[in-house]
Specification:
The chain is mostly beta strands. The chain has one domain: TonB-dependent receptor, beta-barrel domain (Maltoporin, Chain A). Helices cover 1% and strands 55% of the residues. It contains 1 helix and 44 strands. The chain has a 22-stranded antiparallel beta barrel. Strands 1-4-5-2-3 form a 5-stranded mixed beta sheet. The chain is globular. The two termini are 45 Å apart.
């Protein structure tokens, strides 16, 4: 799917330290467990509304967040996570699930945010959070909870976000207007409780419609701002007005307005049951039914920036003379989805002798009804660009073209995971701990797929004639084909920790998880029967730990790989606006070394420091060029785009007294490649945060956070239109006008929390 094509995802370290995640009070700093490693998950330099992605050396498939033991959204490729979850006062604890635990419990190797609701307590409590910033952001959330008699608890929450963004969009009031409501009741028993929670979310957010901008690529990895176009505080989206598109479902030409395709709302009913038996067996059951009748969003993309001439016959609306100046071929995707989840997880836990044994099962059902339509247009390279009008040779005028030529998508169907898993944490001796587990999953998928190449005018029901690979003329009717798969997936993990003494230890572990292509990967042309292969992700790591009264250090070597990764890529002919969509299946492998330390040399001061050196490379990555004069691309051995080879995190903090805390967060991301051929790159950059937290009294906390206090304005991510650019031609791109994504600008945020 076209999610996050142009939006930079903040990349964090791929360290994979052992131990169980620690839950803590809802805060912007989440602890990853082992050795107290601070992850600062909610400090995201690209998006203030969701956790940052913690990289493990592979491109992310999803941002994984679990709420009360179940996925907050089953898949964020259509129903996006930030439309249904925020870190707010409704949460009681927020922790981080490590990749080993995630592989066994969910089948996915990744760091996962593990959040649990505030179910209430017998005494009355209320908390009110308010946040604002120097760009006019207004955000508040409120929770009340307490008891009703001796056997009942209640909780209720409201979250409201009014975010105008970092510039005036003009076709709508807010870049993110999100509302989330919670209400819940809990019945207490002698040995457990039963909770019922209802959640409603409604969100309209512009996302990648506005997270793109033009800049000058200098050629040495740096960029310059285009005069009159400050990065991060200038809109590269049109002022507004009406556009025309072709509905991929029926081929009808329809009209819309920018901002009308961002509706998201969902109803979520959750049941949580926990019970401790007299023999100390503990049973946890979590069930959820979620329905999102609207899971819609709009994507913008770009191609190449070029200098127009009179021969191009492009005009600004209402003008009689041809437009002469910089222009860019722009793309728009309109995504519409309906999502239903029915999820159940049950776990039985028992501690005895030196064992902590856990047995669990998942029964997860996901239904998806999704389509997207695409179109193209040419815009001026300027703030609030004009959509240029093409004067065609036949005397007609057009502003929009290439209807459904670039990756329009469609799928309807379901997938179901039925899994059992078991883990054991075995303290064999006081010095030696062994953790191991396994998961077996029956996976069933039934999906509608449209396995035809896209073209201008593509839609369901169309009759299309093309020349096949043997030169014969073939006529097909564009209609869905049903794909049905029944497969077994598995995951396994083992970890050993041996402590020579109270200071020095060894740790080593191995994890493997497998899966088959998911329903969302059939929304494009999808894998053919020959391409339908098992995806395997092995993770192996080992290293040393050292701790004393002022330092806690872990140093590890890690290998991780992923086979048969599926990606749908829009590629552009270099220097033009011509683009084609191609399906890619390839592998990735990463070898890395990471050292992480918690240092507290004197009272009140703490420093988390992390260094990662890694080399993520492509394997079996080949693109057959769809353009005359452009060679095929063999990316084997190339560094994976957007993933740096050097990562540094420095998080110092000082607790002056029991009321005042000062903190900083520095993250360095080394040189990253901006296209598949490694011809273009961005220099390393620092992402910076800092703040002061003041506990005024037991009722009032105040805070101030500064984002990007070094005021870096560099671009990041990928460069539009440069996917196939060869290294030999990279010299032509010095002082070249391009477009891409960028960092959040310098921002000061203020917060206040009232507790009763």
């Amino acid at each position: 799917m076209k999610q996050n094509l142009t939006t930079l995802t903040a990349i964090a370290a791929f360290t994979l330290l052992p131990a169980v995640a620690m839950a803590k009070e809802n805060t912007d700093s989440l602890s990853a467990g082992g050795n107290g490693e601070e992850r600062n998950v909610m400090l995201n330099a690209s998006d203030a509304t969701k956790p940052r992605e913690i990289q493990i050396g592979l491109p992310s498939e999803d941002v994984n967040v679990y709420e009360n033991g179940l996925p907050t959204v089953y898949s964020s490729t259509v129903h996006q996570l930030a439309r249904h979850w925020r870190s707010d006062a409704s949460l009681g604890t927020v922790g981080l699930m490590n990749p080993m635990e995630s592989a066994i419990k969910t089948g996915n190797i990744a760091y996962s945010v593990d959040s649990y609701s505030n179910f209430g307590q017998k005494e009355f409590k209320a908390i009110f959070n308010y946040r604002t910033n120097t760009f006019g952001w207004q955000n508040f959330d409120f929770n009340v909870s307490g008891g009703i008699g001796e056997k009942w608890l209640y909780t209720a929450s409201i979250y409201q976000n009014f975010d105008p963004g970092y510039f005036k969009v003009k076709f709508t009031d807010f870049s993110d207007r999100t509302q989330i409501y919670h209400a819940g009741l809990t019945r207490l028993f002698n040995r457990g409780k039963l909770s019922i929670l209802y959640k409603f979310s409604k969100s309209n957010a512009l996302g990648s419609m506005i997270n793109n901008a033009p800049f000058i690529y200098v050629g040495d990895g740096s960029v310059m701002e285009i005069p009159g176009f400050p990065l991060g505080t200038t809109s590269y989206a049109p002022i507004g007005g009406e556009f025309e598109y072709m509905d991929v479902l029926d081929g009808k030409m329809k009209k819309g307005r920018w901002g009308d395709f961002t509706d998201n709302y969902a109803h979520d009913l959750t049941a949580h049951f926990d019970y401790r038996f007299s023999n100390d067996y503990k049973l946890d059951i979590n069930a959820k039914f979620m329905r999102a009748p609207h899971a819609d969003y709009c994507d913008f993309g770009g191609s190449s920036i070029f200098e127009t001439t009179a021969a191009d016959q492009l005009y600004k609306p209402g003008e009689d003379n041809p437009y002469i100046g910089l222009a860019e071929g722009r793309r728009t995707w309109l995504h519409a989805g309906k999502v239903t989840n029915a999820l159940l997880t049950a776990e039985l836990n028992k501690s005895f002798a030196n064992h902590d044994l856990r047995f669990g099962l998942n029964e997860w059902y996901y239904h998806l009804d999704y389509s997207s339509s695409s179109f193209q247009w040419t815009g001026t390279v300027s703030p609030y660009p004009d959509i240029l009008v093409k004067h065609n040779s036949d005397g007609t005028l057009s502003q929009f073209h290439g209807f459904n030529e670039l990756s329009p998508e469609y799928t309807k169907g379901y997938e179901n995971k039925s899994a059992i898993y078991i883990t054991d944490n075995w303290q064999i001796t006081p010095k030696f701990n062994l953790y191991f587990g396994g998961r077996l999953e029956y996976y069933r998928m039934s999906a509608d797929q449209i396995p035809y190449a896209r073209y201008d005018g593509f839609h369901i029901g169309d009759t299309h004639t093309y020349t096949d690979s043997e030169g014969n003329m073939t006529t097909v009717k564009i209609e869905p084909h049903r794909v049905l798969k029944n497969k077994l997936n598995y995951a396994a993990t083992i970890q050993g920790i041996y402590n020579f003494n109270r200071h020095l230890g060894l740790t080593a572990d191995a994890t493997v998880a497998t899966r088959y292509p998911r329903i969302n990967e059939y929304a494009g042309t999808g894998p053919t029967e020959e391409q339908y292969k098992r995806v395997t992700i092995p993770l192996i790591r080992g290293g040393i730990t050292y701790r004393n009264n002022w330092v806690d250090l872990t140093s590890m070597v890690t290998y991780i790989a992923k086979s048969n990764n599926i990606d749908q890529q829009n590629v552009t002919k270099p220097g033009t606006t011509q683009s084609k969509t191609t399906l890619l299946i390839y592998s990735i492998k990463t070898l890395g070394w990471t050292t992480s330390a918690e240092i507290h040399p004197f009272k009140g001061f703490n420093l988390h420091a992390l260094l990662t050196l890694q080399k993520p490379t492509y394997d079996n990555y080949f693109i057959k060029s769809p353009f005359d004069g452009v060679p095929d691309l063999n990316a084997n051995g190339n560094i994976v785009k957007e993933i740096p080879q050097i990562l540094i995190e420095l998080d110092p903090s000082y607790q002056l007294n029991d009321k005042l805390r000062f903190w900083l967060s520095f993250r360095y991301f080394g040189k990253t490649y901006a296209n598949l051929t490694n011809a273009l790159f961005f220099n390393g950059r620092w992402e910076t945060f800092g703040g002061i937290n003041w506990s005024v009294n037991k009722h009032l906390d105040l805070g101030c956070t500064v984002i990007n206090f070094l005021n870096e304005k560099g671009a990041s991510g990928t460069i539009n239109g440069a996917e196939l650019l060869s290294k030999e031609d990279s010299g032509k791109y010095k002082n070249y006008y391009m477009s891409g994504s960028y960092l959040r600008p310098f921002t000061i945020e203020f917060s206040a929390t009232l507790k009763f």
